[in-house]
Amino acid sequence: MADFQWQVRVYYEDTDTGGVVYYANYLRFMERARTEWIRMLGFEQDRLIRDDGILFAVRSASLDYLRPARFNDLLNVSVRLVERRRASLAFEQQISRVDDDGGPLCTGTIRVACLTAVTLEPSPIPAYLLEELPDVD
User: 65 lies in which domain range?
Assistant: First the structure.
C-alpha cells in the first residue's frame, strides 16, 4: 500500500509572529493525517472507544524540522505504517509543500499505544483491526 496522503492549508493561527508555522503545529498536522488514515481504513476513533473500549495515544514522537512552512502554504502530510506490534503501531510521517520539489519540511516517527479507554492501561489491538492494517516492509 502506498503512503497515505492528506493535505492541510496553513492558517494564520498556525504561525508565529514571523508567519512561520509554530513547531508544535507539525504534530497537530501529523495527528490529523493519522486520524484520516484510520478513517480511510473504515475505523472511527469514537466508535473504537464506544464499541471496543480502546483508544490510541501517542507514546513517543521524534521530529526533524528541516525547512519552514509559512502562512497560506498548502501542505501534504504523509502517513506510512512501519511497525505493527501487539499493542502499538509506529508511523513514519513527512510534511512537504504541495508542488514543491525542495524536499520535506518536517519528518517524524510517531509510536502510538493501544489503551483501554477506562483505565488507560495497555491493551492488545483487536484482531479485526489488525487484519485491516497494511503490511509493513
Answer: 4-132
